[in-house]
């Protein structure tokens, strides 16, 4: 092995050790680690911790905290299930009215949009409990709308349109609800400098410089002009009498007005239904801290200060409210603000709306002519969104929301609090997981309200906490079992009185460090180590250190444990016995110092039914082969035998290539194979068979087969050797070419023979001619085919005609 491989091996070992450490950290037993002294402390550690109340459960050297463990661990340690205390939380529905859609005759108080209405929830630390809520939007739900208007001079033309708002808005709202109330309030700003001019003339008519003919009312902070009423004509009548006022700076005192409208519920006339507050202005707003400019330093107290005429009387004494105060009071009173503002200030109020749940913003036209449509659009947007909000919960308590909204869309976290685009008749569901991380509020009962913002309905959750075990109530004070009455016998253990310590309260606190008491914690007089170095001496008794379950240190001097025995295959006592005080107590059919020797000989029986196939002896469940040629767990394999290759061929083929006769039953083969690029090809030896065999496709593949201890090692060459497929085209072309060539050759031979034959005949003819005795004569009967004729006029001179 080269240096590079050494480095890789070391790194791998380090990674394995690190992984093992991390795994151990993740599996830490929180119950044992908590060192709980009582059942109540134990069940608050975690949701899975349990306490054993069996009086004699703890042995020598064990403290009472050993009673706190996971329930299955306690059972393994012989604690009867009836003695295991592990209370659980529960959910009890106390009131669950059916969800309804409101008919025209159904009173508003009988409308139910959210269910259940009352829940009792018993919580134990670390055990989550789920609350399931249903919400269905009802039809014809009552609406209260309070119109809060800026009456500074710049809103002069807007006031004219608002004067006839009552009847027109009521007419339009009939399409939404038959139960509609409307009210009106107005605001300007605080009546001190520098917000208004305090000169007598300006106090009488603050609009003098703007329009000499315009008569304005004296400046004021906020006035409730009309409490909520169903009479639209009354709204028109009272609003028509209102006059514009004026101030100096651009921001207005609208926050003062909104605060009073929110907290003065009785004087405004808010009912227990949908509450809308329309805030109409063309300017910005003053907020907390701005009052200091006018010498007002007292923070806003968030209380109602309206007199009998509806005027805000403490405007000059309390500062403007902060945004947080406003959000709180609007939420507490389930009021949904609609900001109807000019385009210039739209972005300002949009940012404000983002801070106020269930609020909307709309752009107001220059003369407020679009205010009715703006209100209806804003109401549709607000009423179609359901947002759940819970009241303050005790420290150590968590609420986690999950929403199943329209079309079964699931949302979690902060998005799990709300559902959007909810139309009349739509039903959505919310699941609230409640988890206690400790015993909140000292175990006292607590009440939490969950309500959909903008609605008066709510769900009340009565919280009760399991901070003590049931056995706590049956404890016996000054029990004789606790050393003559020095403690309370509670849940199987002694809870010592003040000044007493020890498992049975047998010692006083002034006796704990006594040398005589400490001597009894040593194994013998020559020992200087207390409790074998694995425990603390308390009242002359060793309290052994706790370890991760199931490891245990025990006995009088903590000299015994259940984890220091010999190991086999990485397991204490090979997993075949119990570790008792450092020695293995083996189960039946096992023996040896680490219980690694099996007395069961069935694993040695070969396929032929004989022990070790008749070729060896069975020792500790393993065959020792007497014939050196045979190997394997049952001495059944002989690598050097002639038939070894044929015997293992099918399994080697199916394991390596997933082919062959055994490919369907390959899992029954007794060995695994390792694929290599190339294996050594030589003759088989006594311990290894080197094989070259053919598969079903008539290809050669190579493998070798040997045994290392009890496991077969089979190496298969990945590349098989197959005969090359014939070239059909070449064969056909060759045959055709051969036929043609043979034909040509035959023709040439025939031609050559004919030439030779002709030459021989000609030579014979010439020879015969030379040997002839006659001369050449003309045939007497031969007649020449040529005749000559002469023209009689040829050669004459011409005669004139």
Automatic annotation (TrEMBL):
User: PSI domain: from which residue to which, for each copy?
Assistant: 30-80
Domain spans labelled Integrin beta subunit cytoplasmic: 751-797
The membrane topology noted for this protein in its Swiss-Prot or TrEMBL record is:
Single-pass type I membrane protein
Domain Integrin beta subunit VWA per the UniProt entry, residue ranges: 38-469
What molecular function terms (GO) are annotated for this protein?
C-X3-C chemokine binding; collagen binding involved in cell-matrix adhesion; fibronectin binding; integrin binding; laminin binding; metal ion binding; protein kinase binding
State where it is primarily located. membrane
**In this protein, which residues make up the domain named Integrin beta subunit tail?**
645-727
User: How is this protein named in the record?
Assistant: Integrin beta
What is the species of this protein? Petromyzon marinus
Q: Which gene encodes it?
A: LOC116948677
